[in-house]
């Protein structure tokens, strides 16, 4: 058994280098396809994270009367925290509201006209974040009924949320479909490239059959060779990604900082995806290609 | 008739090459290496390649298979190496019924046959030595047994000096001798040669024939399909003639009367 594996690996290694042009062509195809797959996977992850981020931005805002007392605010906060649907409650005072309004203007490069005002026209508010933007429960009604909340201070955001979720769901599905299509393209191109590489050696397989090699002795060296192509392709792809990751990450730093994207787990998943797809497709492609010659 | 054959009482090629030939038991005389009974082969497209073929080749025989193109020579050889299965009738190789052979056993039967083709079928990326060793490597022969076996058959076919050359560096005759060495290295019971001199000029063809005769003298059965009337007529060996899928002649010392 060990001798058989050693034999297969040795033959796979020889087969790879003695047909270097074909093997390297297959490896190059593998690298390009894995880069394509990894690229789209990163884009897909970014998209998903971005959509999640947008969805989390959905807040129920309750404008309060200017005369609201700290006791009333504390009561509303406590009541909101008691709702299981609520993830976070923040109180924004008149001063906070003005400060953040000014910050927004500055960020947009607009002139700050509020300095010409005698009084602060903004209302204090309670911002309620929901765990799931679709699940309101009785949050809106309870807010409206609370003391200190301005009349019509709570906007009905049901339809807004529905529209937003429709858009994000379409985008999420589209992203997934594109990733699947890319995955299929990668599958077919890699398997076909390996088929060609095996076809180029159909004479070798024929000789093996004629001298009485058993199926296992014909198949496994090719399967190991496919695994070599996969390992080599995945290693080069990951090296390229590692080199590119740093400048690209810096370039997109602000983007990534905003998004709830965990870089550590993204990198880990990417390594698993690239290595798994490379080795898996290499082995699968070889197995399938040699099978054609063995079934007779 | 019992066709079961044990390998114990048969001198191996190694024994014969080293002069350790054991005396053959008397029973060996009616033992057939190849036995076809009532064999018909119809291809899926309706083409009938062989009709009611009966053929018996005893061990140690040298048999020519002749006939015009399309007479069924190639089909007959494909049946013997179990590349195709007979539509009707039985094909026995060394006593084993090829149509009843489980798929997993096919490689083992093929090791009893040494096959030589018109186009040599050598691997261009391997040297002469490696091409011959390849046949042993891919059948799981331990490395320590490969070297002596390959050296021995290369000496037999006279290619020791060319062992490290690649097929592209060899003449046609040398390439065919490499292929014969590869066919022999398994110590087969029968050498099946399909037009082995088809690509060679007359002088080199004679060299190859002489080599096959020598191998036959060492006790290996030789079954050779050929178009080479000169060789067939000169040697006065057994000749089986096929025409339109039927055996029309089977005689010892027969000639090859080409009509095309």
Polypeptide structure, described:
The complex is a heterodimer of chains A (296) and B (260). Chain A is α+β, with helices and mostly antiparallel strands and 296 residues long. Helices cover 72% and strands 8% of the residues of chain A. Chain A has a four-stranded antiparallel beta sheet with strand order 2-3-1-4. Chain A starts with a helix and ends with a helix. A six-stranded mixed beta sheet of chain B has the order 6-7-8-3-9-10, sandwiched between helices. Chain B has a four-stranded antiparallel beta sheet with strand order 2-1-4-5, with helices on one face. In chain B, helix 4 runs parallel beside helix 6 (172-184). The longest helix of chain B has 16 residues, at 202-217. Chain B has helices at residues 13-17, 73-80, 106-110, 128-137, 143-157, 172-184, 202-217, 229-235; strands at residues 32-42, 48-58, 62-66, 88-93, 96-97, 113-117, 190-194, 221-225, 238-243, 246-252. The chains are: A alpha+beta (296), B alpha/beta (260).
Low-pLDDT runs of 5+ residues of chain A are none
What structural class do the secondary elements of chain A suggest? alpha+beta
Compute the number of helices of chain A: 10
For the biggest sheet of chain A, the summary is: 4 strands, antiparallel
Oligomer: heterodimer
Strand order of the largest sheet of chain A: 2-3-1-4
Q: Specify the biggest β-sheet of chain B.
A: 6 strands, mixed
Strand content of chain B: 15-25%
Strand element count of chain B: 10
Side-by-side strand order of the widest sheet of chain B: 6-7-8-3-9-10
